[in-house]
Amino acid sequence: MRFFKMLILFLIPFTVPAQQSAFDTDNEDWGAEGDPLGPLAGWSPVGGFPDGHIRVTDAATGGTWYFLAPAKFRGNKCGAYDHMFSYDQFTSDTSDQILLGDRADVEIWGDNLKLMFDNAENPGLNWTHYDILLREDAGWRLNTLNGPVPTEAEFRIVLSNITKLRIKGEYRPSSDFGGLDNVILQNNFEFDLDGDDSSGATGGDFASDTLCIPEGPVADSDVVLVSELAVDSMVIRVLGADENDLLVAGVLPPGVSVAPGSAPGRIVLVNHGNASNADFIDALLSIQYRDISPDPVRGERLIGVQVFTECGDMGIHFAYLRIFPPPDAGMDGDTMICVNSGLLDLKIALGGLPDAGGFWSPRPAAGAGSFNPLRDQPGNYFYIIAPVGECPGDTALVAVSVEYPPELQPDTTLCYSDTLLLSAPETVREWRWNDGSQRRDLSVTFPGTYTLTGNTEHCVFADSIQVSFFTCDPCIWYAPNVFSPNDDGVNDRWRIFMPCLWQRFRLEVFDRWGSLVFAADDPETDWDGYRQAGNPAPGVYIWRLEWVGELLGSPQTYQASGDVTIVR
Asked: Fewest beta carbons within 10 Å, which of 32, 118, 246, 356?
């Protein structure tokens, strides 16, 4: 009996299309839920029936764990009605096996309904094979194992939109593990844009080779379309299409035509009533994608292909067209920028209309093609759009020069006897000094900040110089030694003449008895010869002087003394 079942198993792929998982190379995206150690089923390359298989280990925290089928077993499988669902299974421990209430061995969910099936025997320590007929009278129940027998309509509704398919793996209350192999969902529909997955795409999709011109086919030459039910139509559309994305049909078989109202990026192939699967394959292979824009964007185009039968939408598969027409990196350019002008987008300096997607070499410090004159070196910067496969790339360069605005000389300090001549540089086109003047030269004789603003060919600039003055020679002062305070208007007053900057000043005059008769804190204050207690008296008076001035930028203290004679 087991031999007969296995004979059926190996004949299935050649008689009825199917979704199947043989686990020969990986776990094929099977998962686990309920109470497993992890959400993914583990894969073993050996120990299967034959070769590889998947297994799941019980977490033993309560609940029941299940093998969870991947996407290829979901969706519209209405063609599976009246066909078989088959798999091989084992469990690590058959002791203390219990019935787990209404927990079915196989559950198929869809449209808020659940088809539940309980096998006549549990899996053993060795591989146990199961064949389950997908029909309402084969032992299925609706929603629970104690639920009603589904009607044919309910059964077909579930198969037309399978949202979950799972197989129970736990059969005892204690920890265990179980294995699964050779899962086959017989289905009278199969559609694959790349039958042998030679393009590198899987799951029914197709990925083109790199195309150096902006057009290509939407399916591989070994496209597969098998359907027991007649194909009503096929919809091919460019996802995210614009007015430059076209789908063009070639010569179509007699039973297939393009439906009226198809848009440039969308073609609907319809069956006149007698078209075969082979006719639709030929029609699909005649479809070409074209990008008619004057400057096609390099990159991938995504085309969806849907097949409709009397079961409705049988799902969508995708063609990924890698299109890399010869790029345009633009024309070589050169630019001069000012060092203080901020970031420069190098692509603006290229001629023409350079394509996106390139990179700059050397790479500017700010990245993304932004030249920073304060951080990046002047020179040649290459915009490179790399080749892809056999499709060529392109390169253009920008020669970058940096202009440094003119500067006044550094801050300086001069002797008071000197004059500094500031000049606007010859490269300046327009300029103005901070006093509002526009003369070329400016003579500086006083301390302060002097600013020049203006324009060069490429730069707007402003520069300042701080000018300071100091005393370079000791101050030459003079003290008269005689005066006559007789109100005749001639030599009536006495003072010390000191034409120097001073910080502190003290002058004191004493009579012959040492009494202070005059004092001053400012060299501009003079003495009229009067004593504190009387009129001027002829005679000799002693004076003493101390003052603080500046010499070569530092304070300097001076002291002096002498005499002055009052005459009548």
From this structure: 356
